[in-house]
Amino acid sequence: MKKKSEPIPNQVILELIQYNEKEFSKYDALPIDELLKRQRAELVNWINLDGLTDGELVNKIGIQFSLHSLLLEDITSEHPPRVEEYDEYLFFSLKMLYRIENNEIDYEQISFVLGRHYLLSFQEKEGDPFDTLRERIRLDMGRVRKKKADYLLYRLIDIIVDNYYVVLDAIGQQIEQIEEQIYNSNTGQEFRKIQRLKKELIFLRKALYPLRDALNKLIKDESGFIDPANERFFSDVYSHVAHLIDSLDTYRDLTSSLMDIYMNTQNTRLNEVMKVLTVISTIFIPLTFIVGVYGMNFQFMPELHWKFSYPVVWAVMLTVTIGMVFYFRYKKWF
Amino acid sequence: MKKKSEPIPNQVILELIQYNEKEFSKYDALPIDELLKRQRAELVNWINLDGLTDGELVNKIGIQFSLHSLLLEDITSEHPPRVEEYDEYLFFSLKMLYRIENNEIDYEQISFVLGRHYLLSFQEKEGDPFDTLRERIRLDMGRVRKKKADYLLYRLIDIIVDNYYVVLDAIGQQIEQIEEQIYNSNTGQEFRKIQRLKKELIFLRKALYPLRDALNKLIKDESGFIDPANERFFSDVYSHVAHLIDSLDTYRDLTSSLMDIYMNTQNTRLNEVMKVLTVISTIFIPLTFIVGVYGMNFQFMPELHWKFSYPVVWAVMLTVTIGMVFYFRYKKWF
Amino acid sequence: MKKKSEPIPNQVILELIQYNEKEFSKYDALPIDELLKRQRAELVNWINLDGLTDGELVNKIGIQFSLHSLLLEDITSEHPPRVEEYDEYLFFSLKMLYRIENNEIDYEQISFVLGRHYLLSFQEKEGDPFDTLRERIRLDMGRVRKKKADYLLYRLIDIIVDNYYVVLDAIGQQIEQIEEQIYNSNTGQEFRKIQRLKKELIFLRKALYPLRDALNKLIKDESGFIDPANERFFSDVYSHVAHLIDSLDTYRDLTSSLMDIYMNTQNTRLNEVMKVLTVISTIFIPLTFIVGVYGMNFQFMPELHWKFSYPVVWAVMLTVTIGMVFYFRYKKWF
Amino acid sequence: MKKKSEPIPNQVILELIQYNEKEFSKYDALPIDELLKRQRAELVNWINLDGLTDGELVNKIGIQFSLHSLLLEDITSEHPPRVEEYDEYLFFSLKMLYRIENNEIDYEQISFVLGRHYLLSFQEKEGDPFDTLRERIRLDMGRVRKKKADYLLYRLIDIIVDNYYVVLDAIGQQIEQIEEQIYNSNTGQEFRKIQRLKKELIFLRKALYPLRDALNKLIKDESGFIDPANERFFSDVYSHVAHLIDSLDTYRDLTSSLMDIYMNTQNTRLNEVMKVLTVISTIFIPLTFIVGVYGMNFQFMPELHWKFSYPVVWAVMLTVTIGMVFYFRYKKWF
Amino acid sequence: MKKKSEPIPNQVILELIQYNEKEFSKYDALPIDELLKRQRAELVNWINLDGLTDGELVNKIGIQFSLHSLLLEDITSEHPPRVEEYDEYLFFSLKMLYRIENNEIDYEQISFVLGRHYLLSFQEKEGDPFDTLRERIRLDMGRVRKKKADYLLYRLIDIIVDNYYVVLDAIGQQIEQIEEQIYNSNTGQEFRKIQRLKKELIFLRKALYPLRDALNKLIKDESGFIDPANERFFSDVYSHVAHLIDSLDTYRDLTSSLMDIYMNTQNTRLNEVMKVLTVISTIFIPLTFIVGVYGMNFQFMPELHWKFSYPVVWAVMLTVTIGMVFYFRYKKWF
Fold first, then answer.
1. Separation of alpha carbons A157 and A134, rounded Å
2. pTM score over 0.90
3. Which of A5, C33, C242, E62 could anchor a disulfide with E67, C-beta 3.0 to 4.6 Å?
4. Would you list the domain boundaries of chain E?
5. How far is A293 from chain B (nearest CA, A)?
6. What does the alpha-carbon distance between residue C124 and residue C52 come to, in Å, rounded to a whole number?
7. Could you read off the pLDDT of D189-206 as tens digits, one per residue?
């Protein structure tokens, strides 16, 4: 999991998309005050802010929509996914996983404020996976234009959650790859990979568990920000997140199995090496003793003068060696 | 656990079974529109679809029974067992384990839609374990013909759950076999088998835990799709699944014990080998030293010229050896 | 834990005990139809069946008392302890642990059906621990004759639960014995004993946890099968079972400590052996080098011709040896 | 944890303390029937029995206060801390830890029966930590004389729970001591100490968890045995017990850390020894080979006849040795 | 985690801060009786006591505000964070982490008593992180002067909780540093650091979990001490604490991963050393045998007299050595 990269300070994008069944308009190069004036209560107003470095901008939006000071703090500081119900709006935040490079996960926090006729979204960084949806809204494809801001919120969350599947699938594949590697070549590099996987799973858990709770709270919410007719959609996202958590737990178990497999392979390998080496030593040590015996300089050693001693000693040593090899093989020691 | 094999694309089977206490008919070679026309509200209509590759077919059924778009998505995508209550029907899905080859488990997802007078079942692949039931319905054996579609759903779920017992029993036997093998021959192959078992148990857990929750929700359901008189049957399936989960947990504990046993046997074996080999080295090293002493070329070494030196050295070495062997044996070092 | 032995097929015992405060009668050699006719609603009728192989017998009883088909299935198939409330009767089943041979536990499933004026008990095998109670009923000792069938059920369950104490105490003693053995002689046999213990504890857990839940459900039951005045008795059994589970958990912790102790003792032992052996090698290897030096055949080696070389070499070697021994001892290496 | 020592059979102490704001009297040498007659409903009557071996005595008290047969069984048999509400009285039992010798814990079960105007206490063994309280009652210090029997019960439980703090603090100190010992001298004795600690913590857990539950039940009790004005006192004891459990869990974590530390220190130590020894062998083995070379008896070995061979060989060997030592040091192998 | 240092006995600081929207006054050098007289019900009176050694002082405050005896005991004795509701005031206590030296955490217990128009705070030691807040109150910055004592309590708790973030971030950095160190140089010192981290996390958990529960109780409190309009502020602190606990759990997982990493690195290192050393021995042992052969003194050994024996032996030995090195390399044994 790549550490949240520093927000790029020089690019702040502010965008307003307005629509209902009949109308659609989009503004993205307007100054903030202009833009805020354009919103109309009879349309769905989606105001999206990329980049949270311009504090004044956030404050102006805050004043316009009379956002609570604690809520503004929540938008700009990192915290676990959360839903907060206020009198005039609903706050919802979650982590967005949106890029994968060399199996690295990058994430940012996205916050939503859902009012009666508007949806605010605050992103930390430029770039998001919502372009397809923007296009579908513009072209009036699917249901979005017929629905209110709460349905828009559902669509955005759904897109974000779908990206989790991509990430988790990649993790699943990594687990299989690492397992393959361990069984085949166990170079010792796998240990670090497993540790990295474990960390990623820990961070994903931190993103997913509170998200599930937040969604649950959202579904049970009775403040009327979510149209009861749309509750089923949020339930569906909820069950997707539950499924993701399920998979996460499975991957955690598999990763801890990976560690077992790694340790076992390492051990088996070491044991094998040590056994073979020890066996070699064990065979040569008695032989060295035998030749040592006949290296003694005693004057009276009858064997020394016997003509066939030398070949006989070789024969004996060969016998000993073969005997030991057979014995070790029989005992399955190497 | 074998990965869900690719759905076979060329074979889609659509089948309608209609019955009440007096009538029975079965259609399986009709085009979809024909078939849908034949259903009659006074009968139980069981429409079974094998193979989900023909998207148009699924859509036509969806339109006919006005299935919700989220539900259609659920039918065709993989997800944990789940029950969803809609106004006009009840959705229930679970995993079907239906074939075992070399202790491999194959599974597919089966989805049910239970309406007032019909039951739809969607299978991913051809072939199912329901033929006996179809025959019993045709021949009017047992209670099925006297009951409504909800009882049919119970019977189908019951058959699927019964198959889980077969699979779990096979796993129980495997655990015992592997334990036997470890104690008797520990070839190192057992490690992978244990790992495979662990994975299968993880996947079974993923299939069973949500199934229990779904059944619980089904029993507590008050929408009227399940006749209260039939609730006891679903309760019975529920307690079967609870029993299966129980066994699963036991098998998990036993499998983790297996790992302990495996590791211990491996260690004991290695230790034994190392100890014996080390003992051999330890005995010969002092002997080699002794013979080394009399291999020195000093001019003035009185022993070299003594007539009985050689046999005495042998005697000393024999004594040392026997002494060490006894000492090691006494210390139970090998 | 001994696998449930095969039910002995040839011996099926059917017995009827009838009593109230004034009357007592017992029939055990009557054919089933005769026996069923004898029951009288004004008495407590306890019908006990040993051996479930005679399916027809079970069926006849089932018809007589109009037992539900699912209940009959439950009686004859194995499942976790369970209570099921029906309109006309209450079903209760649990595991009976009743024999201990060489610390082996044998168990069987016993099922009860409690009606308004009768109690049916179904045992898998001949022989039970209820004879003392039968005698107390006959002789009108204690409260049993003054109470109804629900109190009889309590007494039977109480007797069964008391047997669990015996079994758990035996396990407690085994744990202490094994610990003693490990500390004193650690022969390697203890590993299998610990594994066996662990398995027994797993199976006991499977018997006890659902039993506690079933008793809890029984106490909270409001169907009237249990006289509220007798609830305290069932509560008492409940707290006994809770106590047993408590002990079970303790024993599980102790058993896992046993494994730690075993592994540690094994390791300590191995390490000690290896250390001593390695120390011996380490002492002799430099000595062997020294004598090797003077085994060289160089023409110009002044020491060879010096008169005191030989004793000096011995002195040097002695010094080296003593030095190393002291050093190793000082370092506490053996 | 010392096994509950056998109750001393020959000493049974029965004592009656009566008081209200104005009166106080104490009887402890009276026969049971006398004593029971003396109790007066307008006073708080505290009857304390030390030693449960005199069954007749317990029975007489049981009859006098019409105690339930199950309750009498509970008083004389061991069980986890428990509260039981009866119509006429409240039963409360817990474990009393009251002596520490060489860090050994001795405990006994104490049972209380709280009636409208009396409190019965049953101890297994002579001696208790209540003498200070008895004195405070006699001298009318603090609130006790102004309050009823329920407050007396609180004071007694409070004293018992305070003793747990002493025991847990002692365990905390032991943990620190053992850690110190392991880091400093690791003699291998620490293993058994840690095991003993673990056992004590297991037994304390068995005493404390149910005590917390019992106190909770007591506080929520609505039978009126506890004056609502005194509930805060029992809540205070409850939070003490909760704090104790907290510490217990901490100590459990620390103890399991101790095991890690112990194992690691053992391993580090062993590894160090083995490494040094192996390094010595590794240095001398090549040297032994070199001298072996010049111990060969070939007729044509030019070095043998060269004058400076011997010193050159020594130089070579020295170089090799120093090279290896430096290499090993550089590699940080010893 | 540094053990709570001894309270400094000689410095007890008593301070009264009074304010409302219009007035502000601060007294800190007055004797206790004077000070208590100055409080006025129309203002927020914040009485802060640093140092709990002056028992008389605490008692005087206790009498003035009629604090319950159990509450006074709680103020002066250590216990987990807790909220207690009394009729006239609310008691709240938590741990304050306020200094970090060489990554050491120092903490003290701070207790609050919130009445209708006053807030008492009791600190064990001099020095607190509230000076900025005192200044903001004096200068009438932010909302504090407009709010009541409950908001002041929120601000104080918020400041304390913010300090936890600092501590946890430092721990997070330590974990990364230690991991870096282990991978790069693993000197064996890391083990103790990890153990220290684990202990700190255990103690932080003891501070944070009950704090979350206490805050939850505070929010749900209906006694009216907390103005419903301020509940959101306490909810915000609650979610901060929940976030901290989340991070704590993550750090615990990471720390236990650290142990794995440490053990693995240690093992890998040892294995490497042992393997290289063993390989060296294994290469030289056969060579030593070969030279031993030609050190034998048999009269009839044809090789001894052959002119090229010596170079041939060298060639053979070289071949053996190179062969073995290649074989070991090929087998990846070193």
1. 14
2. no
3. E62
4. 13-265, 274-330
5. 5
6. 5
7. 889 999 999 999 999 999
